[in-house]
Amino acid sequence: MDMKKRIHLELRNRTPSDVKELVLDNCRSNEGKIEGLTDEFEELEFLSTINVGLTTVAHLPKLNKLKKLELSDNRISGGLEVLAEKCPNLTHLNLSGNKIKDLSTIEPLKELGTLKSLDLFNCEVTNLNEYRDNVFKLLPQLTYLDGYDKDDKEAPDSDAEVYAEGLDDDEEDDDDDEEYDEDAAPGDEEEEEGEDEEEENEEEEEEDLSETMNCNKILNMYAALSKNTQCHVKFGGL
């Protein structure tokens, strides 16, 4: 699917000005250029064009509100100077898997004063001596390079943090449930009381049965004795 058609499908009957996120991954660019994207996407904050065969970003429209730009797994080797003009408020840029070989290619990014995170995984430039130190010197506004800061501390993953918080909430809910069970709800207490009453009734019935059996044994003994001694003993109602 070519990029123009993909953009049309992604709109889903919305106007370009209503779109804040646009994912065009794995579609086909025409001659390595961005097509179908216009200045009308004035509210766009996130754009992803992973593996679309781009060789240039020269045809990128003016996107003043764009903050995150995914350009990984393309064939871009230069021309990054247009980003400062087209996306002046960019904070995250992913150029992993492109044909960037030297520091001079990324030097124009120093004009992006708001750029905080840059990814260059699987680019030849990462093989240069003292690559990380030199990039941080070249782009002093950067906080994270390839996911780590100057002190090799990993960049926080906001999605992971939200997920962790969700797990913590679930654990707290489980603890609350356990405490609730220990306290026992009114309904549970009534059920337990009912069970206790049933057990008491059963015990009383067993005692009554035992007494009846004992009485029958006594009567049988008297009857046998009466026959042996030829004494007639009359028991009322028996």
UniProtKB/TrEMBL annotation:
Q: Primary place of residence?
A: nucleus
State the superkingdom: Eukaryota
Return the GO cellular component terms, semicolon-separated: nucleus
Region annotation Disordered: where it falls in the sequence? 147-214
Give the GO terms filed under biological process for this record: regulation of apoptotic process
> Is the keyword Ribonucleoprotein assigned to this protein?
no
Compositional bias per record (Acidic residues), positions renumbered to this chain: 157-210
Q: Does the keyword Repeat apply?
A: yes
Where are the coiled-coil regions? none
Q: Which UniProt keywords apply?
A: Leucine-rich repeat, Nucleus, Repeat
Compositional bias (Basic and acidic residues): 147-156
User: What functional role does this protein have?
Assistant: Multifunctional protein that is involved in the regulation of many processes.
The similarity comment for this entry is: Belongs to the ANP32 family.
Tell me the protein's name.
Acidic leucine-rich nuclear phosphoprotein 32 family member
Tell me which residues make up the U2A'/phosphoprotein 32 family A C-terminal domain.
Answer: 128-146
User: InterPro entries recorded for this chain?
Assistant: AN32 (IPR045081), Leu-rich_rpt (IPR001611), LRR_dom_sf (IPR032675), U2A'_phosphoprotein32A_C (IPR003603)
Q: Which GO terms describe its molecular function?
A: histone binding
Query: Where is the protein found, in the record's own terms?
Result: Nucleus
